[in-house]
């Protein structure tokens, strides 16, 4: 599945921070360096800047698809560039793709590569041990941190209890 669209997502924590008595401290240089900071109230001019960037990026994306697909693309397809999802069958019917395949089948069929070699770094024993230890410590910390946050919420009656 795929779609032709551009998105930026985030969260706004300002209200939660106020309820918890958390003060935001952010030091930057440059007028828009902390653009759309989730810990600060949204600024209409910065939202407009982001929307302009999204629009420009979407336009470039559309140009690239049209240029790359050429005559194969049914550009008159309703909602083609709206961000809707297209499954593989639909994508083929409207010219977004030429066919169905995997990396292996495309390599075999287009460039006659019968065998692909994967280049994955093998972790050494010390790295594997550190990963396991880090995961264990992280899980313990996360469990304790979640419990602490829940207790703080309860004591502040943030959760309505």
UniProtKB/TrEMBL annotation:
<feature type="domain" description="Peptidase S49">
    <location>
        <begin position="2"/>
        <end position="114"/>
    </location>
</feature>
<dbReference type="Pfam" id="PF01343">
    <property type="entry name" value="Peptidase_S49"/>
</dbReference>
<dbReference type="GO" id="GO:0006508">
    <property type="term" value="P:proteolysis"/>
</dbReference>
<dbReference type="InterPro" id="IPR029045">
    <property type="entry name" value="ClpP/crotonase-like_dom_sf"/>
</dbReference>
<comment type="similarity">
    <text>Belongs to the peptidase S49 family.</text>
</comment>
<dbReference type="GO" id="GO:0008233">
    <property type="term" value="F:peptidase activity"/>
</dbReference>
<dbReference type="InterPro" id="IPR002142">
    <property type="entry name" value="Peptidase_S49"/>
</dbReference>
<protein>
    <submittedName>
        <fullName>Peptidase family S49</fullName>
    </submittedName>
</protein>
């Amino acid at each position: 599945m795929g779609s032709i669209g551009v998105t930026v997502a985030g969260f706004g924590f300002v209200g939660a921070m106020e309820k918890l008595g958390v003060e935001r401290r952010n030091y930057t240089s440059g007028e828009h360096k902390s653009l759309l900071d989730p810990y600060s109230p949204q600024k209409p001019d910065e939202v407009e800047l982001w929307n302009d960037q999204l629009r420009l990026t979407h336009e470039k994306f559309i140009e690239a698809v049209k240029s790359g697909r050429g005559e194969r693309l049914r550009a008159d397809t309703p909602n083609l560039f709206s961000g809707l999802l297209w499954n593989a069958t639909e994508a083929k019917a409207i010219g977004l793709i030429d066919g169905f395949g995997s990396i292996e089948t495309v390599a075999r069929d287009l460039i006659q590569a019968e065998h692909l070699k994967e280049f994955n770094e093998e972790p050494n024993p010390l790295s594997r041990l550190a990963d396991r230890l880090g995961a264990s410590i992280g899980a313990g910390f996360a469990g304790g941190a979640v419990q602490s946050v829940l207790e703080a919420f309860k004591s502040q009656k943030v959760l309505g209890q």
